[in-house]
Amino acid sequence: MKHIVPLALTGLIAVILANPSRADDLLFKNGDRWTGKLISLSDGKVKFKTELVGALTVDAKKVLTIETDDDVEVHMNDGTVLVDTLDSADAGTTRTKGNATPGSVLLTLDDMASINPPEPEWTGRALVGGEIERGNTIKDSAYVELNAKYETKANRIGLRGSYDGERTKNRSDGTSTTQDRNLFGRLRYDYFLKDRYFWYLQTSGEKDGPSDLDLRFVVGTGLGRDFVKRPDLKLSAYAGPTFISENFNDESSDDQRAAGRVGWDFWWKAYGDIALFTEGTYTQAGLDDILVEGEVGFRDELTESIFLEGKIVWEYDSEPAEDADRQDVDYIFGLGYKF
Question: Is the pTM of this model over 0.90?
Fold first, then answer.
């Protein structure tokens, strides 16, 4: 009996040494190391769970290398998907161990679009801006915008809506008048093809009081491409035939016409939590029939969900309503919520 206990202890130690505690590691550029479990890398953020603190989120730019004890699903920026265990390598790189994919592949975090991406869900942001004026003039103005997106490996759906209005109150009789009202809505569907190309179908509607535009309805289709799709930089463009129908409130003639359209979308995380962006469309139906709609601005992420945004929205219509200007410019600044 006296030999059983030492033998049991020896066996337990052997089992522990042969099966050490399994854990993943994050090595940071400042030399820190976290040990725990890698949850995901998505949208420039690494989610990691430690035993003492629990789930944490950190900027991917602060991470030097990633090591995992189990296979993870790595989505590369070029569209390649690797399923393998990750190990650290020299000069801040990561290497697949070659267990689940043929051979070992040398990677950097800049090469990776995501690791263990979450299940597709609706994401988006809401922006609210406004102005309140009291005194000789009683005026309230508001700008509200909503963007939402749902994306899978094969499809992408985008929704956008905005309202821009101004209400003035008459001091003598207390009546309120709503003026300068603009309503806009857009729905777009993308079907992904090879090499980041996609086929798109897009429709939009707009009502603009100051421009005497009762309704502009646009529907178009064509091909596009995501040229760059990284956590810190995105660039895409598309082009195709478009049908436009315009109805006016004044004596201008209503118009329906076929046209060609080119669109672009650019976003760049320029410094820290500040991003620059621009998007728009150029539409032409004839030599003298041109419609350009675009915006350019910045977005500052104050927290993970709250942001500040400032932008200039510009429109040029070579054939506007009879008494309307060809050019329209809005300066918008507001507070937003990301979901």
Answer: no
